[in-house]
Amino acid sequence: METKKLKKVDIIFENEQGLSMAVLEKTLKRNPDDIILDLIDSGLKGRGGAGFPTGLKWKFTKNEENPVKYVICNADEGEPGTFKDREIIERVPEKIFTGIAICGYVIGAKEGYIYIRGEYNFLLKNLNVKLQEFNEKLKKLHFDFKIYLRSGSGAYVCGEESALFESMEGFRGEPRNKPPYPTVAGYNSKPTAINNVETLVYTTMICHMGPEKFKALGTTDSRGSKVFSVSGDTPIPGIYELELGMPLHDFVEDFGDGDTKAVQIGGASGFCVTRKKFNDTIIGFEGIPTGGSMMIFNSSRSMYNVLHDYLEFFCEESCGQCTPCRIGCQQLLKGIEAVKRGERPPSYLEDLKKLTATMKIAAKCGLGQSVGNPFNSIVDNFREEIIY
Amino acid sequence: MSKYMVNLKINNVPLAVEEGTTILEAAKTLNFKIPTLCNHPDLTVAGNCRVCVVEVKGARLLSASCATPVSEGMEVFTNSEKVRTSRKHIVELLLSEHNSDCTKCKKNGNCELQSLALEYRVGDHTFLSVLKPKDLLPDLSSPSIVRDNSKCIRCQRCVRTCTELQGVNALCVAYKGDHQTISTFMNKPMNEVVCTNCGQCINRCPTGALTEKNSVDFVWDALYNQNKFVVVQTAPAVRIALGEELGYDPGERVTGKMVAALRKIGFNKVLDTDFTADLTILEEGFELLNRLKSVLVDQDETVKLPMMTSCSPGWIKFIEHIYPEMLGNLSTCKSPQQMFGALAKTYYAEKVNVKAQDMIVVSIMPCTAKKFECDRPEMRDSGFKDVDFVLTTRELALMIKQAGIDFRSLEPEAYDSILGESTGAGVIFGATGGVMEAALRTAYEVVTGREVPFTNLEIKPVRGMEGVKEASIKIKNVKPEFAHLEGVELNVAVAHGLSNARKVMDDVRDGKTNYHFIEVMGCPGGCLGGGGQPIPTSEEIRKKRAEAIYDEDHNMKLRKSHENPEVTALYEEFLGVPNGHKSHDLLHTHYKARIRY
Ligand SMILES: Cc1cc2nc3c(=O)[nH]c(=O)nc-3n(C[C@H](O)[C@H](O)[C@H](O)COP(=O)(O)O)c2cc1C
Ligand code: SF4
Q1: What whole-number distance in Å separates Cα of residue A344 and Cα of residue B124?
Q2: pLDDT in tens, B569-583
Q3: Which CATH superfamily is domain A19-215 in?
Q4: What residues of B are in contact with residue A369 (Cβ under 8 Å)?
């Protein structure tokens, strides 16, 4: 299997004076189709979790015939253990704006929105100032495009794209039925390109440095680098931009505290990997993809408590509309409690695993569909800790 | 624009359907039944219960068949292993959140969750109960509607009904995750919010989470009380729908059998709300003519046009909350039910020589809002509570069953006289447009001396299920006393379902219309689609009920309210003239503004 050594890179936070404007001016003169080709060539996949090829997303949105289209930057960053978008917003907001504007240019939109999670309201003041400056610059460039800010109210599910649209439209943040997909009918039922904060910064940088340099990093399935939010039992928690495709083993060598027993990759909705599998696990779309969260647990941690916390989170953060997720999450939580207390036999865990199989294919959105990830990976790897 | 045909296979059977068809609809054409819960023909698609999931070949996820349009080459499986397992899980999950004491539930036997549980034989409850103790306390505050969250499966059919069909927004979804629940503004009890008591949510609730406030036992108590003289009135729309609760197809008329059953149950007199429907036409018709004169001739600015009908208590509460500034447009007539009550305990009590305080008036109504209406303080003009108890069509069916009556074998019987005679005009009150049609049949004739210029007296433009209907009649060759109406084009509108009422009201408020008279019924289809009618409901069913109503009218000897001999006698012996003093004392009232939530 193709792997890469752990390597720190500096693309996202590179902040040379005037970089954003130069990229924007240069790119607005290019043919939109060429920009899309560059993005497809770069192999950039969405950094928000699902990993959809960004170039294709823009292409689909561009191909929709509709006078009104939108670009939305998903800055809801709700996944437990993820805090990299916040850092990006604080340090390189212009590079986000530029990505949004380029996207608007490519797909033919006149409005862009940044949907920022309610808990980040303390960032708004600064962000607004920067945004106004940027909007002014757009005017000077005679590019008919404007970016607006929208603040969420603290629901994890509003990071799910269609719930985000509902929320922006003033409704309850409940995910919609798909199809139609956002590229066809998103915000206000208009074609919408929605991307994660980090994805948009990478698009800016790909326009800056060309697809070649980007795709020289990473593996065939996971091109480029990615910003990781490292937390848990580590002496050096924080934000790191790393080349994709490294084995988890290398990561733990550098970031662990020498006593790492498991890493939860991709936040509460991601997977738990135990020491035994550190060597065979690749961080990337061919292995375990991640929106950036890497939570490191050492041997002092109870994995029952970890799973319990995650399930409590999902019980609370499910939007509650669909049966498999609303009740399924509660059953999983109550279920492991009952097994722990001896009120249900250990074999009840098998019933619950079957339930997660249903949740995975029958829940309406990614939230309910992915609760089985942490559940199965923790229950399978730490069965004793769950039962006793 | 003609639609593309899409080719697909369902359970290996090839078929072609129009583009945009959902998998659920496509499967139906092949008679593959896919269970549903959150889906309802009157409402937009939600796709939240997930019981209708199906497997599409090549797809990672199952698809909610109600929400997924077909696509070319799609291969669908409606009963694969994955589908079955998921569906069973979903039903089990719903039951784990459900207060499953079916034997004590009012919807026992007519519950979509119960049927699914039966079909999937989920006997051994695998899952732990996640029913919330706080949900075990039902909201009994409303005179019409009982809300029991312990029976709720969160399909949001009620919420969509209240918002989409009724535009009332009394019910909403609140909180998220395990706390997600159906609620009201600030969690207030139902009697303190904007709820109009229309009961449309009840008609669309798949379980027992929403039911009517049951009054059957009070009525039995009254019937068993030897000192009480219990009379019953039946609304026009009951006779064409009651059968559905008793094994008949939608649209079968059971008027005579219903009268016979009521006698068997033990009512002292079986009377007809159709009689006061005819009376309403005279009162309301003359009120309209008076208003027209005040506005056109006297130019009295205190008199408001267009005049709006006032028979539908859900509509009344709606206008009190939402358009209080237009209460002056509302006809001052009470509803037929309340006119009946007021006359029963005065004129009629005297006729049958019963003291008013010994008389109990029971109404059988297609409506839950009537329960609220009979409790209103305005409805005591006889000196007593004019109508004591209201039963819905469903509750009457229940009484018939409790009494052990074999409904099918009953010989049809006729209503008692007096207050039992009616015309076809009274009958059609039960359908949207019916009051308008009845009023025009009478008013036109009063003004011109001739019948309305429509074949068979059937004013087709105001019939049918269109949400808002409009019509105009040119008034020509009038009688001398109506000279001011000569050449006037009388513009009328009919709306049913409160969302449609909202549209009309907004247009009227914004001065966009030139209507003289508007009929509004709170429920889709009019009373025949009322909140007290048999469940289920759909436009198809409502159309059948409407046909039955118009058949009933068609077969009546008398078809114009002013020809009802008992009404004529009532004016001669008791009321004097329409809109006279006595009428105003007993048959008219005024309503007041309410706050907006
Ligand atoms: C429950 C849930 C929460 C999500 N939260 C976020 C989020 O906070 N930020 C984000 O960028 N994407 C989030 N996503 C993914 C988005 O739906 C969407 O895929 C993403 O914004 C697309 O951007 P990308 O292609 O750039 O990754 C979430 C998805 C789900 C199912
Ligand atoms: S899976 Fe969960 S969060 Fe997603 S729609 Fe269903 S209940 Fe809502």
Answers
A1: 14
A2: 999 999 999 999 999
A3: NADH-ubiquinone oxidoreductase 51kDa subunit (3.40.50.11540)
A4: 61
